[in-house]
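Aim 2, interim progress. The first record below pairs a target sequence with its structure tokens.
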Amino acid sequence: MAKRKASFEEDAETMQKMNEEKSEETKNLSALKQLIFLGRREHEYDIEGILFKMVTLTSGQQRSMMQEIMSLSDDQRVAGMREAILSRSVIAANGVLLENLYEGDDADSLTDAQKRSLIISEMQFSIVEQLFVKYNELTAIEEESEENLKK
């Protein structure tokens, strides 16, 4: 019987160690998520009665955007940059994910990123301009926050 008790105590200790390790893993995962989203800004803007939800870009999104832009001709880069940024920054319109608004016949063969890009490219120029102004405001808020963190 004493042997069973020792075994039970060892099992309890093992379970406690496993729980502590899981707790530490959870803390590490939580810290990783905090680092990923540190500095991220998200805001909704009303443009012409449509509520657009926008976020700042991650460094990976900015890198892929630059790769996309550099593949364009010099003439296409300015307009292409706005569309590339907005297709990553605008995530929803009136609460609906932007990619879910795409209605083309080729919807099944396109990625979500391609759908968002096509939607932005089909918008009226004035709306794209207004969205880009809002994106610049959003990143200006981000830069102010970063400066406050440095103080």
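The second target in this work package is listed in the same format:
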Amino acid sequence: MKKTVSILLLVCLLVCSCAFADAEPDAACEEHSWVYVSSYSTTCFVTVKNNSAAPVSVSGRCTALDSEGTVLGTATMNIRVIGPSEESIGVFRFEGITDAEKLEYELAYETPTVSSILSSLLVDSHGNTEGVTVLVTNTASVPASGPLIYCLFFDENDALVSYAYSYLTDYDEELKPGVTLAEQLNSAAAFDHFRLYMSAYAGIGQIAPVTPRVSEADFSFKEYAEATPFDTTYYVAVKSSASVPVGIRANAIAYDADNNVLGAANALIDVLAPGEETVTVFTFYFVTGCDHIRYRLFFDERPRVRSAISDMETRISYSGEDINVTVTNTGEKPIRYANLTALFTDETGAVVSMQMFSCADDEGELKPGVSVTRKITPDVNFESLELYVSGQKD
């Protein structure tokens, strides 16, 4: 089938109903489409609700045309599976095209090769003036593969004014059974309301489950909060007592004193070896009034890089009001991405200033036996200075 979407007004809505092959005689799909034009691209969103009794997959091709019917570009999309009564979203993107007069798209419906899981993904949303915080929980007994959430933001006239999207996955690109992940999806424009759509399919899980060698109990944490009139940042020092090196992904939710959800953020530690400590950062954009955070860690027990933190020795000396921090590579390998983070805290332990420095030379390394000194000039009154390093080696 072919549908034409006019974008003379930049944003529009199309509703249609159509039959598809290999379905029950009374089966139908319900489509809605919106177009968003930015300064550098045109994006067409097509949502499909499956009103049949059988799952379907959806593929599509869209053509962007100028006022004379000349083809400006084409785009494709695919929704791997939509189960009965489920709704999902596909996206046509035209990078570098902003002057199309109309879009024409065709959708094809086929029997899927994977199983749906959308009905088992519980979405909890918390709107705010900047966007929405979404918490997605997999209530199924199998993983959700490639879970992707879109938020479309509309004005009071139901015109699309912005959008945001995010994957909600661990190191396996999955959302495991019973796990909740949160994301903050912000709008680039003022909006009146929003709509959420997801795509995902059921994974098969591990045929022979492997017992993890690492858990959150193998780590200790120390939190340092920094609040501004606009954002909230948490610096979290993580110390490992695990038996193996790991990479760490962390997903955090910010709450006020009444446990209302305020926002979400993610953090990453490429690698942390046994006995080492470093600091990672959660930045909650446009979040104020935060009382506490909760976070969940995901571990990669086969990190692709080696940590060099244990090879980085730090020494402090003072010169008037300046603080000199010397970092020495005591190991036998050059250190890449050698960084020093300085946290200045007040008497309550809150961060009043943060400074970060590279310890690398012109070749991007801190070589064996080499020391570098960084002068830290406090720009605020502080009670304590906390230092953390990070780096990688072959």
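The CA atoms of residues 71 and 106 lie 15 Å apart. This observation will shape the mutagenesis plan for the next reporting period.
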